[in-house]
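Q: A reviewer asked whether we had any structural model of the full assembly, not just the individual parts. We don't, so I'm hoping you can provide one. Inputs are below.
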Amino acid sequence: MSKAIDRGAAISNKLVAVCGNPNCGKTTIFNALTGLSQKVGNYPGVTVERVSGKLSSPDNKNNITIVDIPGTYSLAAFSPDEYIAAASLYGAIEGERLPDAIVCVLEATSLDRSLYLLQQVIQIGVPVLVVLNMIDLSDKKGIKIDFDKFSKQLGGVSVIPVVGNQGRGIPQLKQTISELVESDTVSNVPKFGDEVEDLINKLNHNSSSRTETETGSRTRTRTRARGRAGTGTGTGTNEGIRTRTRAELLRVIFDVDGPAEREFLQDYRSDSIKDIIESGRKKIKDKYGYLTKAEVGTLTDRATEIRKSVAKKENEGYRSKSEIFDMLILNPIIGPILFIVMMIFIFQSIFSWAVPFINFVDSLFINLSGYVESIMTPGPLQSLLVNGVIGGVGSVLIFIPQIIILFLFISILEDSGYMSRAAFLVDRMFRWCGLSGKSFIPLLSSYACAVPGIMATRTIEDRKQRIITILVAPLMSCSARLPIYTIMIAGFVPYKPIFGIINLQGLVLSGIYVLGLIVAVVVAFILKKTMLKAERSTFMMEMPSYKVPTFKATFMLVINRVKMFIIRAGTVILAITIIIWALGYFPRSESINNKYENLTTLENINFENKYEKLNTINEAIITNYPNLNQWFTQTNNDISALDSDDAVIQYRNENSADSIRNLVYNTLLDKRSLVLQHNSNMAQIENNKASENLSNSYFSRLGKFVQPLFEPLGWDWKISMAVLASFPAREVIIATLGTIYNLGGDADEDSASLISKMQQARYEEGEKKGELIFTPAVAMSIMIFFALSCQCAATLVTIRSETGKTSYAVGAFIYMTVLAYLFSFIVFQSMKYLGV
Amino acid sequence: MTPLDKMLPGQKGKVVEFEDSDSPIIRRLMELGMVPGRYVKYIRKAPLRDPLVVQIEGSYLSLRNAEASLVKVEVEN
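A: Here is a predicted structure for the entire assembly that you could use as a starting point for your response.
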């Protein structure tokens, strides 16, 4: 986060903002400028993502930070993210300094709209650099641009042609940025009509002539780099009140009841200033007919004028590639089919194609845990590392492949321009329940993770649609839920074909995903009809031209998301895992320890006695029949490799010879049986010890205390505790189950996997003693609870900061938890009743 | 004059005026290029007949029938 730094004091630290319309290729240029030095943070006080990086340039004398401003059409904010973008550009965000220079990215193929934003940006009064992106596309379209004339028309600002996704023009751009922050040249600021200029002057004059007593008790201080308000006359002396740039004063004037006006009136608490604004607005309206025309009309006219003078007119008969694609992709019949196929393709790839990768990562962790176990002496530290850290966090990290695949698709769909088409196709379907086509992107993202999903709602200008989308987004089954679905389905839903091609496992998985969607739609409908009834609903969106997504942009997005996921696993999840481990490991009872030590000693003595007797016979044979030596060694090797009782019996049946050889077979096979029996006995003792320790632990005591609450859902105390522990972050359920069942010992040496341990888990006491804990009904009840409940602290925090109200976060938590309990209860009880 | 949403695919027209001129919706429409005096081309409807796509000054804009009805257009024949 950048501190407000006085320009004079720290001459070498420069801040350069990169702004532009949405989809103008701004992020590609930002990536090219900063390379891998990117840092994702937040703007002060809000969770709007602030991506910044250092200018990567060999002759970078100054320390230049580049900040990527979210795409915007105008400095007049229509949505919350546009306000952040705009306000950070003109220096109205507390704790965020005014940039030393602004790079404004223009799309060569839609100059009018780009020029509109540029003119507003020039009004800010800091040095501006114009980047003309996608110059290759405009060349193809037959638009010829006169760069010198362009620069002159814009009052002398540098204009640099660039093809961002090919890296063309980037070195020159870097060079110019370095020069610009040094030179401090500001282009001429174009004027508006007299009525507007008059009001700007009045607001400026008024704010600079205020006395300290009028400021009253307001102590707000904002360090400002410099005041460039108005025409640059002596402003900025007002005690405690920051000076406003010309661009911000325009917002005060034109955005009636907008955030800029509200803040302005708050700073200068007097009725006279309110009157000045009102009467000034009236004069503007009298002249132009309506307020908007004085600004937007003037700027759009000027934009068209500039465009016409610098760019040769587009060839009328030209049909761009985008139009041809649209004829197919937005076709009334082909379009929806393509959309559905694409969605199926994405889900298919996440759920089946990711599996080999997941198994690979899983095997890495199993090997790691085996290795750590082998090099450490048994004790609390070994248990903490193997069962707690590796068993817990590892079970979460194995889902990285799925996260990568999902964000890969989202990034590609967004960068290619398809997302806007999808929004267009589905808008009508979403509308009846208070959502819009723009809700589609946040909701699809929420299938990966609700946090970026909720953040993506910032592009929804409409407040009602935005709030509804935020409140239902956590119902989309996010990737953190996938592990529990995978395990429950693999373990407790039989693989059996239904209607020939579909199988039950796949059907249940799709069903769970659809359940979340259906509940979301119903909840949205109820919200629309009740609490958010009065507000209007709009949908306006530019259809960007299709682009080939750049590898770099896709890569950066995926890397940033995976980083977030790993950090989460390394912090919240690790902490909870350690607590769960400690609760399950302690207290260690001496008497349990002694009891099992005795049992182990007894078993060892017993085994050694029997083994010695057979060994004596073997040795006698070898001494007496030296000619059998080679055969004996071979047979001994073969038999030692037998790994089960069945294999031993089979070997015995298949091999027979003379009496001496038969005697060798029998003794060797008896020995082998003995060893197998011994191993299994030792494992059994270890298991019993672990499970007795676990039942004696704090975890078990707590679990048995809360279990009655979850009895109606069919859960035992272990599940109840694991679910409770996963309220801060739902992935914890796997880590917790992994830890509990690891601590509880392996049920069988050969099947170390969590699924098989759960399949074999039985009640150890009470009226259900001996019954299986996990039945299909229990598995369904757990899955449904996870599908609908809001077990994610990060989501709740995001809801609060994005809506600005704690009540929305609390509301989301309550409604989701209640729904989850209710649905789980109904499903478990009816399955039990039906005897499934 | 015809409301924009009542035009037919392929038709061209000149934007004349708005209903409710100083609303944020109109400001945003103007910023996206829907300015009186400019020519707008009606491209297509969504499969469910709403929203629609228009072309204005080289770019494509999607908006709902409800918003489009605020824009009054003089249709060219």
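A: Points you may want to mention in the reply: Strands of chain B lie at 2-3, 12-18, 39-45, 52-56, 59-63, 71-75. The two ends of chain B are 13 Å apart (CA to CA).
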